Amino acid sequence: MDALRALAADLGIADPFGSGFLSVLITFLTALVFTWRFIPGLRRFAVQAGWADLPNARRLNTEPLPNAGGLAIFAGFVVSVIVAWALRPIVVELVNIQVLAIMLGASIMVLTGFIDDQFSLSPLTRLLVQVLVSVLLIVNGLRIDFNAIPFLPVIPEALSQPLSAFLTVLWIVGLTNAVNLMDGVDGVVGGVGFVVSMVLLATAAQFPDRAAAVILLAGLAGATLGYLRFNFNPSRIIMGDAGAYLIGFTLAAVSLLGTLKVSAGASLIVPLIVLALPVVDTTQVVIGRLARGIRNPLGHPDKTHIHHRVLARTASARRTAVILWTVATLCGALGMFLQGVAPRVIVVTALLIATCLSFVASHRVRAHRRELAANPPQENP
């Protein structure tokens, strides 16, 4: 029992049998179960409503595929946070306004993404909404403090304030779009979103000022895992821009919770390194498109993304997803190490991530086999 409590303490769990840890666990399971059970009904409704993604240069589907998965992730996320709020396991009153700002911003991003999925918004409109939502966070105290970033000189407040605002907008808008641009192969964004959520959750649990972040990340992790049960290749539903915007924005915003103290700059090391995969992917895509003379690199879909390159080598969407999940996990482990997280916490987190992903992936594979047995493919005469 003492060994269990010692390990729990290393993981940031003050009492493994206390209300705080149980509330985080309930939040995670609520999001997982709700999303898992909600998607089949949502998928049927989406098919009837015509909410579907048509094949294009970025996507690999060869026929229309329901694209309302982001709504299920959002629903599971919101329901779990409401449950956590009702349980009130931790004192979050001091950051309630910031949590509400994140939830409101996430709602706006999901709505914008969903409208774009169904009716196509212009890149300028999407960018404007993303900037406005970033400003919403800034006015509620969620921002990157330029003067707290390591290795940079301290500058006068008159200059640091606008620079801090600019960096915050760049952080939110950049990560939101980076995650969205990765959504091109079944299971990639859902899995990477789960990995990043779990890594940030394990890291935030090490700091007493990030309790609210733990709750939000537990909800997002559970919702993405529940969605992944239906999105691992061959997917039954995709998240669309609504889901990608939700994951990218929420991860970027939650990483700012509890970063307003002296260690603010260091607290961004983990999310930056953990999200290295979408960041590097977006960077190389943008540079490549600009080199080819494309004026609007974010609005010109092609198959030069990392997931497309890996898919070309593996010829398997499943192997591609697993490879990128592994890369994201390794990036997460590196980020945790640089943050000073204990090695055994890193190992436990990685094993937990691998176990959860294996669980949902195997469920999807078995479900697909049952689908094939019930409806065997027809041979051409």
Please list the strands of the largest sheet in the order they lie side by side: 1-2
Q: Which residues sit in consecutive blocks of at least 5 with pLDDT less than 50?
A: 260-265
Please estimate the helix content: 55-70%
Query: Count of helices?
Result: 15
How much is the average pLDDT?
A: 85
For the biggest sheet, the summary is: 2 strands, antiparallel
Q: Tell me the strand percentage band.
A: under 5%
Total count of domains? 1
Order of helices and strands: HHEEHHHHHHHHHHHHH
Overall shape: it is globular
**Distance N terminus to C terminus?**
66 Å
Rg calc:
20 Å
Counting helices, strands and paired strands, the structural category is mainly alpha
β-strand number:
2
Secondary structure topology:
Elements: H1 2-10, H2 19-49, E1 52-53, E2 65-66, H3 69-87, H4 96-119, H5 123-139, H6 157-181, H7 188-204, H8 211-228, H9 240-254, H10 264-267, H11 269-274, H12 276-291, H13 306-314, H14 317-339, H15 343-374
